[in-house]
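Final report, closing paragraph on structural work. Over the funding period we assembled a curated collection of sequence-structure pairs, and we close with a single example.
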Amino acid sequence: MKRINLIAGFVACAVLAAGCSKKTSDNSAAGKTVKIGIAKIVQHVALDDIERGVIDAVKAAGINAEYDLQNANGDVNTANQIASQFKDEKVDVAVGIATPVAVALANTIKDAPVVFGTVTDPIKAGLVTTLAHGERNVTGMSDELPSVEHIKMFKEIAGIKTLGYIYTSSEDNSLSGLELVKKGCAEAGLELVTQSISVSSEVKQAAEAIVNRVDGIYLTTDNTVFSALPALVSVFNKAKKPVFSGDVTGAKNGGCFMASGFNYYKAGVATGEMVVQILNGAKPSEMPVRFMTKPSDSDLLFDLDAAALCGITIPEKYLSQATYIIQNGKLEEK
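Its predicted structure, as stored:
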């Protein structure tokens, strides 16, 4: 368990509790410190960036904050324990990064605001009943990917006919992603080959089970899969078959033929801005679920080394749109 203190000036205005019975104004008045609990389901680069973005947004708002930063290590039982800990600590706001942790916080904490970050389908997860506003003390941000458009682009650039997809059967966001992938394949006329997993240690075996049956693989925001991304990439690179990642952050390390998705640091900042609004008196029940919809919120990466390995030539119209290019093992930001 890890705890840090970040002090960033004085609170600009008095703080009121947000859509729940517990009030935070006593803790967050000018010159005092609020306590924020942030929990993520596993540790990997994208989720770390979200956490960092939340902290930076709160700091930029001039709020004195003490943080309890927790990692469930992919275990739902641990997520529930963290939620109970946050409740006992009487945090002023609890932030859940990824669906399992967000659900654990929402089910456990009823007297303080809960803000979810990067939950693909918050309605299916039971966090809210509508995207138009929060539910009681719960609101947050969705990271649903434009998977249908991604798959069509993948087919156009790589000329694939069969698509692989590995997903965590116990994660609601992964199951929601699977439905979008099915739709994308149906519209693009692709055959879909799927493989489910339960834990990150199964990712390499799952990749080996499907690599010879597909022309390429597409990855949505499945945290268990991404926590073992290097193992998956190694299997597909060895077979000279392309990987399309919905997470640009992890793809910066190389090996993914292309990646298109949200900038997860910016997603963290957006989530942190919602935390700030709540600490300044907004009610979660009145705050709509936020989406990353601006072009500047997303990144596009091409790994020319991986493309060459797979025998793929990327059209200039796509290369010109890229925010990141990897060539000769070097990452260039455009």
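The chain has two domains: 2-143+263-291, 147-262+295-333. The longest strand covers residues 34-40. We thank the funder for supporting this effort.
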